[in-house]
Amino acid sequence: MNSIFKQYKSNKKVYINILFLFLLLILIFILGNILGDVKVHLDFTFPHIFYNLKNNIIIYEYRLPRTLVAICVGVNFALAGCILQSITRNSLAAPNIIGINSGASFFSVLSLFVFTQSPFFILPVAAFFGAIFSCFLVYIISFKNGINPIRLILTGIAIDILFQAGTSFILIQNSLEVGSAFMWLSGSLWGKTWGDFYFIFPCTIVGFLVTFLFSYKLKAFHLNEDIIIGIGININRNRFILLFISAFLSASAVSIVGPIGFIGLIVPHLVKILVGYNYKIIIIYSSLIGAILVVFSDMIGRTIFAPFEIPAGIIASLIGSPYFIYLLLKSRF
């Protein structure tokens, strides 16, 4: 009876925390649509709030799609990091660490150089392809009688360095495109439209649902490999599937806003400190906190030096870098 009561209290605390994070996201979402170079005053009484959101051009055409894209991007990066940290059993694993983001960046910059008069959709397509290609490259090189988590991370770091060097070389050779490339490489949400949201939203929904379905296997990866095999889980096959899901989530985000570092690193690690290794809860918490961080970073970047903008990726890096150093100092490797 006592254990049932403790379980009830534990579940109640989880639900309260989820509600708190959801309400905090709504608050940041509203502030993200109001604050900016041009101040907007809204009537928040129901149902006038919906009328104002749709009929205010500044909000509906510019800020609302931008903020919605920021939410999806935060969810995608956080879930991608959540998956990578599970399958590698390493708190330092993230899309920007093992080469997925840099692969997307390289192919995006390459597309700007090769297709100088290309239509707008070439860059996100190139980024998506680059992230998936980088993922497969890491998998193929690191595969040797199965995938070793340490070998996977080391291969990812090597691929990351290679693609970063390639990106720098292209930018040096093509200085005319440096401005537009730098804005994208910094992780900027500037100019995001409803078209960008319509692209990334289905990716976010599908990625979240699939990740949630794999929550049991994500938790199992923290067990000894003999135990994992004993409970009927094919390690290599599931590690490959989850690696691809992570690449899909990261690719869809990078293709729209560029690489925003540290969201996929700090969010899952922080959530695991708070809730342990229940991956159903981790996935929900990570999604909400990731969305809050990206919307908050974009809002700060737009307002702190208005009318000038600081890309959300730079703000997120300023938040994440100290935490990354803290993880390195605590790591045994």
From TrEMBL:
Tell me which Gene Ontology terms the entry assigns under biological process. siderophore-iron import into cell
Signal peptide (residue range) = none
Task: Respond yes or no to whether keyword Nucleus is given for this record.
Answer: no
For this protein, the record's Gene3D superfamilies field holds: ABC transporter involved in vitamin B12 uptake, BtuC (1.10.3470.10)
Gene Ontology CC: one annotated term:
plasma membrane
Does Transport show up as a keyword for this record?
Answer: yes
Q: Which GO terms describe its molecular function?
A: transmembrane transporter activity
PANTHER family listed in its UniProt record: FERRIC ENTEROBACTIN TRANSPORT SYSTEM PERMEASE PROTEIN (PTHR30472), FERRIC ENTEROBACTIN TRANSPORT SYSTEM PERMEASE PROTEIN FEPG (PTHR30472:SF24)
Which compartments does it reside in? Cell membrane
Q: What is the name attached to this protein's record?
A: Iron chelate uptake ABC transporter family permease subunit
A Pfam family recorded for this sequence: FecCD
| TM annotation in the entry | 14-35, 64-84, 96-115, 121-140, 152-172, 197-216, 240-271, 277-296, 308-329
